[in-house]
Amino acid sequence: MSVVLLVTVLAFASVALALYTATAALSRRELVRRRYGGLGAPAATAEEVERDQESWLDIDPARLGLDVDARRALRRELIRSGFFAPSAVVIFTLAGLGLRVGLPTLGTLVVTRFLPNSGLAEAVLIALVLFIVAHYLPRAYLSRRQRHLEIRYRAVFPNFLDMLVVCINAGLSLDAALDRASGEIGASDAEFRANFDLMAGEMRAGKSTPEALKACAERLGLPEARSFAALLQQTIELGTDVSLALTTFSDEMRDRRMSRAEEKAASLPPKLTLPLGLFIFPVVLIVILAPAVMKVLSATAP
Questions:
Q1: Would you write out the chain's pLDDT as a tens digit for each of its 302 residues?
Q2: Which chain regions cross the lipid bilayer (predicted)?
Q3: How open is the CA angle 89-150-145, to the nearest 5 degrees?
Q4: CB–CB of 80/146 below 8 Å?
Q5: Is 195:189 a contact under the CB 8 Å cutoff?
């Protein structure tokens, strides 16, 4: 009885910790969006920012077992996944720890509650399997979110280039055009805009434009963004016409987007072959042959 009570308490504590960290992450992300003016919400005040930064989640990640290299790598992965909050590393680490504790605990509780005849070996095996799942689940979530964001970034990137070309042709400098073009991005692509806002902050902090563009391309994770950063770096170093280079590159990006659309359209017939063969054709054959089969059976019946 005491074991069941202990498992219940651990499960409740783990679920409460996971819910709290998830709620804190969502509120923190909402604050970041408001600070960037994303979603059309009013800008967060200095008091809200200061009060949010005084949260107990703003602890040293070294206390959670993360060294400097691991913290930087995790921070880079979280930014690529769209989580820009300063405490995202702590929240993700705490959520992972809660998941590693809570999921095996809940599994053990379910086994002891609904399968009373199961032995200790089965409970340990289920707990071990759930622990392995809980260990890889956060990273799998980050990978899936990165792929989703890459698709969104790839869709909005040609439009960003078109706006950038218009700003350059209007007489703005490259830095001003980048800031203006990123400001015209809609609220539905707040993560894409946040990356360029970070780039603008790096440039104001003293980083050169090619270096800031290269860092932004790494955060976006797009080959097109890396090519764009390399193009601007070569253009700045060689002193060629930025407007002409961007116009050519923008046309190439639009052609590439059209090629991807045509490729997806061409891949539809092979993808439809299996559903048609399994679900459509048997129904059509049954509808066509059923009357004839019924007549034959009725004619041959004694």
A1: 445 555 555 555 665 555 566 565 555 555 555 554 444 444 444 444 444 444 545 666 666 667 778 888 888 888 888 888 888 888 888 888 888 888 888 888 877 777 767 677 777 888 888 889 888 998 899 999 999 998 888 888 888 888 888 888 888 888 888 888 888 887 677 888 888 888 888 888 888 888 888 888 888 888 888 888 898 888 888 888 888 888 888 888 888 888 888 888 888 888 888 888 888 888 888 888 888 888 888 877 66
A2: 6-26, 81-99, 119-137, 272-294
A3: 45
A4: yes
A5: no
